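We close this part of the discussion by returning to an individual protein. The sequence in question and its C-alpha cells are set out directly beneath this paragraph:
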Amino acid sequence: MSLWKEYLHPKTVQEAVEALASSPAPAIPIAGGTDLMLDLQQGNHTPVHTLVDLTGILELHALEIRGEKLFIGAGVPHNRIVESALVREHATSLVESCGLIGGPQVRNSATLGGNVAHALPAADGTIGLLALDAEAEVASPSSRRLLPLHELFAGPGKSTLAADEILVGFYVPLRKPRQASAFCRVMRAQGIALPILNLAAWVERDDEVIRATRIAVGPAGPTPFRALETGKFLTGKAFSEETIAGAQEVLLSEAKFRTSPARATAEYRRELVVVLLKNAFSAAWERAK
C-alpha cells in the first residue's frame, strides 16, 4: 500500500508553502525524513496525501554569517553542522549536540529543521540551540517572521507551525570574547542512542564572575525547557563549587522530570541533571577564557 499519493519537488520556499496550502490535506513537508518515513511505515503517522520535498530548495541549505548572526538553514544536515568551522566557533553546544544524534548515516540525512520541527522535549539539536538564544525564521504563503525558538513548541511532538508553514532556518548570535557554550548528555547504549537526559549551557564571564548564562534541559517538561530560574541564580555570582551547588538545587526545583519506561525514572534523571549541569557549565566556563 502506498504511503502517500502525491510527491512534490518545489525549488523555492514560496513554492513549498504554496504547495502545502493548495494540496489536498493532509500535506506535509519532508527533508531528511529519518523520523517521518519510519512513522509512516510503522503506522505511527496519520495517512498522508501529499509529501512536499524540501531538499531541492537551496535557501534551506545556507550556512553563513548574516550581519551579527550565524544563519543555519533548516535543511542543513547534522553532519554538516558538526564539520562546520563557523558553527564550531559560534555555536559549540549545537556542534556537540548534533554530533550525538543517531549514527553517521542518520546524521548525513537528518536535518536541523526536522529535529526542531518534530518538537520532542529532549531533541538534542533543539536543546543545543535553545541555550544559544536562537531565533527561528518561519515562512507561510503570505509572509515570513522571526520568533524565539521556544515559541515553536506547543507540547510533546507538537509544534506551533501551521499546516502551510515551514522552517527556513535559525539565527544564532555570534560569539563574543569571553562567551562560550557546551552540551552534555546521557544516553542508552543502543543503535539509536536515545537520550535519557541532555543539557546545554551558555555562559559569558567577567574575569571570575558569571556575567550571564542560559541553561536548557531535555526532557524536563512537555516542551524543550529553558531553566530560567537557574540562570537568574547564577548571574552575577562568582564561579565556585558553592555557586554550582546552589544552581543545582534551583534546577531541581524548577525542572519537572517524569518516568519513562523505555528510558529512565524521574528519580534517576534528578540524579543525572545535577551532574550534567556541573559538567556542561564548567566546560563552557573554561572555554570562555
User: Anything to note?
Assistant: The domain at 6-53 is CATH 3.30.43 (Uridine Diphospho-n-acetylenolpyruvylglucosamine Reductase; domain 2). The chain has three domains: 6-53, 59-173, 191-287. The two ends are 58 Å apart (CA to CA).
